[in-house]
Amino acid sequence: MFTCDFSKKGNLTLSEYLYKNLKSAIIDGNFAPNEKLPSKRNLANHLGISVITIANTYERLISEGYIYSIEKSGFFVTELLSFSQIKNEKKSVNQENQNKPEKITNNKNQNIPQIDFKTNSISYEKFPFKTWNKITKEVLSEPNENLLKLPDAKGVFELRKEIALYLRRFRNMEVHPEQIVIGSGTEYLYSLLVKLFDSNLLYAVENPGYKKVFQVLKTNGVNCVPCKMDNFGIKIEDLENSGANVVHLSPSHHFPTGIVMPVRRRQEILAWANESENRFIIEDDYDSEFRFLGKPLTPLFSSEYNNKNKVIYINTFTKSLSPSFRIGYLVLPENLLPIFNEKLGFFSNTVSSFEQFVLAKFMEKGFFEKHIIKMKNYYRSLRNNLIFCLEKSSLSSFCKIKEEEAGLHFLLEIDKKMNSKDLKLLFEKNKIVIPFLEDFYYQNKMILEKPTLVINYSGLKKDDIPKSVKILESLLI
After folding, report:
1. pTM, to two decimals
2. What are the pLDDT digits (tens) for 317-354?
3. Which residues on neighbouring strands pair with residue 181, listed in sequence order?
4. What rounded mean pLDDT belongs to the chain?
5. Residue 80 has what pLDDT?
């Protein structure tokens, strides 16, 4: 049991002194990676202090990434790289490179980047192949004539039922299977929405934003207008002045800025939609499963202010299972169901019945929820290791990490006399693939005062993190 001598705390509060000692014990390796910590009550009894003090200390350690919690299981120590490891590796690399004219050596394979903070991928070791294979065999072994039939336009009922149950448990959304439409990825689902609405409607998108949405909408023949963002999300004044009828948002975790839209702005957006019968909100909840601090935020779809059925919810299994897993879904408000059935009810569903039945059984047996917990812990550990290495490197003197508490990316703001143009050339020369925040603005010549990198870490391997940080360090110092 962890022990702390409070007689030496000096002017520090109990919570501050306990936090300092626990943090030092974790960094020094006194706890094994993923070791379970004492419960709040047990540690409070052992140390003779209040449970509230323990709770505040644990909450702070969680927010900083030193520990993590699993519901109904307890608190665990994050797997970190020790400072000595980083320091020794840094020293070794510096010695190897001190006589070389170039800081970065070229790869033998010129097509493979040295660092890739852009690509979405998942390590094959993390995909539940064994379980998926077992479920696949079960589905094939059960006589089911529906496997050989074309599914309903909205998709296989069994999968829609499981998605509805999942959304009810984890996103607080009271929806029926009839409201859910399965499709092969978001591109197809956006094209369905364009066909669902009148063709002359104007669409608004966030600026900066995920440009693929803009491109897909434009390809489907609709007019789009970018609306500016502030620190709380899309600016309501820009939206009102745009003349748009439909707005695409990611309020739970905006890409690329990482902004979480507060309730006041959510109210304003819903009030805007309620002003006209032909106004709607497309809510993209693309990575809601991966929130590392606090509970997942309530979607706009189930907000108490969404009293006129104005929100269409969209999500996929891309982040939770694999980017190659091309299954996504819409949740339509009930008032749009008759229109969908009339306009699009004759469409053939674009996902095979077999894949849908396998995923439905995977979810029904609880494997999907277990996989989410596993991946959340994995990504939390990956993020914590990356942040730990960045903070212990010399980059920390002029780089600021922002919006790291949710999703699978964060921002790295560079406060140094560097401009984005030169940095991009430097990265390109050394085969470094990192998007810049300014790349996601729709203005062609948008230049930010401080170059800001969008660090997508989902495709990283833990063992590659120290090397990646050292390469960045050697280029930016």
Report:
1. 0.74
2. 887 787 777 899 999 999 999 999 999 999 989 899 99
3. 330
4. 85
5. 67
